[in-house]
Amino acid sequence: MKYALAQPNWRFEGSTYFGCPETHLPLELLYARQVLEAAGHEAIVVDGQLEDLSAGAAAERVRRFAPDFVVLTTAPTYLFWRCPQPELRLPAAWMAQLRRAAPRAVTVAIGPHGSATPEAVLRKLACDLVVRGEAEPALASLARRPWAESPGLTWRSPGGIRRTEGLNQQDMRTLGPLDFRGYPLARRQHRHHVFHGAGRGAEVEASRGCPWSCTFCNKTLFRNQFRPRRTEDVVAEVERLAAAGFDYVYFIDEIFGCGKDTPALLEALARLPVSFGVQTRMDLWTEDSLARLGQAGCVSLECGIEAITPAGRERFRKGCRLSTDRLQALLRAARRHIAWVQANLIANDDDDVPAMEQWRRELIADGVWVSQPVPVFAFPGTPLYRQRFGPPDDGAWERAHRHYLDVNRRRGTFSDVQDPAPRALAELESPAPDGVAD
């Protein structure tokens, strides 16, 4: 079977999206291609964003390939499946073009939207099938009918919409190093979460999932269970990127440093001509291990503190046993070894704003960047969404988006990395004018 794996050329005007708008490696598509080829299938990756393609140009490439399956991701790269743009106007426009280019192919949507609300994605994208969970273990199974024997699928049939239970989760120990064959890697430049110097950056995945269950984290319906990759595969992938001219990698792991193999990974990274960035938790580290992290080449560390009181952190089910003073001491220790250290806070109605500002000022004076408290979006499928609204249904994204706009317009607390005047979801998803597909 032949699979065309596509990523749209992302645009976020008017969106509440607060992820990075730059190009990132579509790891979900690259790994899926590798798994499909290992199973004897043929696959291509069409990265609309990296190559700055129009939907029409991408569709023409897909038409020439003549696939049996057309797969489109509904959010940028696994790194941002946890905070995707709520609107699906762009994926819907791209899916329409791809469907016309390959009318005999089965059209498939992967991503966080379908993992939470598969029937809504079937409707909005007018596709044939939606995958719940991760793409890699699901796509090869599509060639083996009947689909009713595969978990985590929702599809259109002559008798209506059908659905199988379960989620797709990849066995990370079987994902060997990416070879990037045929992918336009030379176009890639962006160094994610680095704010000084110059160089070339790429993303790498050392593990998936997280053993904690913070209420706001959008990982429950995909990338949930903690699963490390083999250290030798991660190192081999970084070595390939270094050989291709990259001098920086960003680990997209939900929580870098959870794995028991972390010391071995840091030891190997210290020998490579690359620096790296991570997302992590301060309570995974000590002064000594933070020093080893910096010595291994870490130049960017981002962590969620969420609140400056134990009660505030408990509100989010953070599961952090350290005191605020101890967290502060570890952040200062990290900054002694790592060029950029960032601590993130979440806004709440009952925040002690003067105390929070004082806490921020003290750490910023010592070189640790502490964000302004950011508003939290109750992504469908998160524990926070369920607390507020119950199980996600066909209108979950509209409900969460409307609540987010109402609360943050009243507070005036939209994040400074968002569009300053986000629009309503119905407006964002209104049909494009005739002839405009991307």
Keywords summarizing the entry:
single chain; 438 residues; Rossmann fold; pyruvate-formate lyase- activating enzyme; 2 domains; six-stranded parallel beta sheet; 15 strands; 32% helix; 16% strand
Please outline the helices and strands:
Layout: E1 2-7, H1 27-38, E2 42-47, H2 55-65, E3 69-73, H3 89-101, E4 106-110, H4 112-116, H5 118-125, E5 129-131, H6 136-139, E6 153-157, E7 160-163, E8 201-204, E9 207-208, E10 227-228, H7 231-243, E11 248-251, H8 262-269, E12 275-280, H9 287-295, E13 298-306, H10 310-315, H11 324-335, E14 340-345, H12 353-365, E15 369-370, H13 383-389, H14 396-411, H15 425-428
Parallel strand pairs: 1-2, 1-3, 3-4, 4-5, 8-11, 11-12, 12-13, 13-14, 14-15
Antiparallel strand pairs: 5-6, 6-7, 9-10
Helix pairs in contact: 2-3, 7-8
β-strand number: 15
What structural class do helix, strand and pairing data support?
alpha/beta
CATH H-tier superfamily of the largest domain? tm_1862 like domain
Main sheet: strand order = 2-1-3-4-5-6-7
Distance between termini? 28 Å
> Any idea of the CATH topology of the largest domain?
pyruvate-formate lyase- activating enzyme
Q: What's the domain count?
A: 2
Low-confidence stretches: none
Can you count the helices? 15
- Gross morphology: globular
Order of SSEs = EHEHEHEHHEHEEEEEHEHEHEHHEHEHHH
Helix content percent band: 25-40%
* Percent in strands: 15-25%
> Which architecture of the largest domain does the CATH hierarchy give at level 2?
Alpha-Beta Horseshoe
